[in-house]
Design a protein that fits this description.
- It is built from 12 helices and no strands.
- It is globular.
- It has a single domain (22-310), classed as Na+/H+ antiporter like fold (Up-down Bundle).
- The protein has helices at 3-41, 51-65, 76-99, 102-113, 120-126, 131-157, 164-189, 196-199, 201-225, 231-269, 273-283, 286-310.
Length: 320
């Protein structure tokens, strides 16, 4: 083959790859936006919200199949993330006071104090980041914050919550350690199982889109059930949770630096809101619970944008 012809074929192959990636990227973006839109329009889907836990467990099982943990997964920045998570909780509380008073302050506190989400390692796996870093952050923040909340909550609520630690321990034990142990066992029996996540990447994405629909539907149902909340209060809660979300992702990016910027941002920004919605409803009331509920919408919109950007090539490589 002549050099010119070989060069033309090289250019054609790279353009074909780039166009294929763009098509797939737009398809995934459309799927994410459709899931969010349908979830907002179909609050009836909340009756299937119990599936979220099992979908997350299935996705984590695939993530753990290709993740090997070691001491190198734990860094000093994890302690900084934990400290930031706690300090930003009180920062959200102060911000809420400035914006609208006690209920808004409590909604800001519950949105900001929330530890790392169970699904954060899944999102990082889609973004091709360091999954082990986010898993370590998840375990650290969930266990330590759960242990500290019985001490921290009386500061903002004036009452103790000794059962908070057991609530999170049960959740972490079932949703995280079960798929982690199952993945370790399967990989020990059949080593080639580590190849499954690559082959099932589209299936894993489909599970995430389904989870996104159910999460949004559940949030939509919650908001509709409390539609008697004054519009001004709802706006203040939504604004406070939005600002908390932006601050969390930005602070995490700064803490992670060049090496772990994306991972630390995800660990601090994507929140285990199911836990704090429960605590807010139990100890503070539905208006306060709107804080972490609105946060669900904001952090998933940001996740959708990240996945959209990650699925598009920056440019077509120059031919050699």
């Amino acid at each position: 083959m002549a050099p010119a012809t070989r060069r033309e074929h090289c250019i054609a192959d790279r353009w074909t790859f780039a166009l294929g990636a763009i098509v797939i990227g737009f398809a995934r973006t459309a799927a994410i936006l459709s899931a969010i839109t349908l979830g907002a329009l179909l609050p009836q889907g909340h009756v299937f919200a119990w599936l979220i836990r099992w979908l997350v467990m299935a996705m984590l099982f695939l993530v753990f199949l290709q993740t090997r943990f070691s001491r190198s997964a734990v860094h000093r920045s994890h302690l900084v993330l934990l400290a930031a998570n706690i300090m930003l909780g009180f920062g959200g509380w102060a911000l809420g006071w400035i914006i609208g008073g006690n209920d808004i302050a409590l909604s800001g506190f519950f949105a900001a104090i929330t530890p790392t989400a169970i699904a954060a390692p899944v999102i990082i796996s889609f973004l091709r980041g360091r999954v082990d870093y986010v898993v370590a952050a998840f375990l650290l923040t969930n266990v330590i914050i759960a242990a500290l909340l019985p001490v921290l909550l009386p500061v903002v609520l004036g009452r103790a919550t000794p059962e908070a630690f057991m609530q999170v321990s049960r959740s972490v034990g079932l949703v995280v350690f079960t798929p982690m142990f199952a993945a370790w066992l399967v990989r020990a029996i059949y080593g080639r199982a580590a190849e499954w996540p690559g082959r099932l990447r589209n299936a894993s994405f489909g599970m995430w889109v389904t989870s996104l629909f159910l999460i949004t539907s559940n949030a939509s149902d919650f908001l509709r059930q409390h539609d008697d909340t004054p519009q001004g209060v709802l706006f203040q809660v939504a604004l406070t949770s939005l600002l908390v979300c932006v601050i969390n992702f930005a602070t995490g990016r700064l803490i992670g630096g060049r090496e772990f910027g994306r991972e630390a941002s995800q660990a601090l920004g994507q929140k285990n809101t199911t836990f704090t919605i429960y605590l807010a409803l139990t100890y503070a009331g539905p208006v306060v619970a709107l804080g972490p509920t609105c946060y669900v919408i904001w952090h998933n919109l940001w996740n959708s944008w990240q996945l959209h950007r990650a699925s598009h090539p920056a440019r077509v490589p120059d031919p050699v």
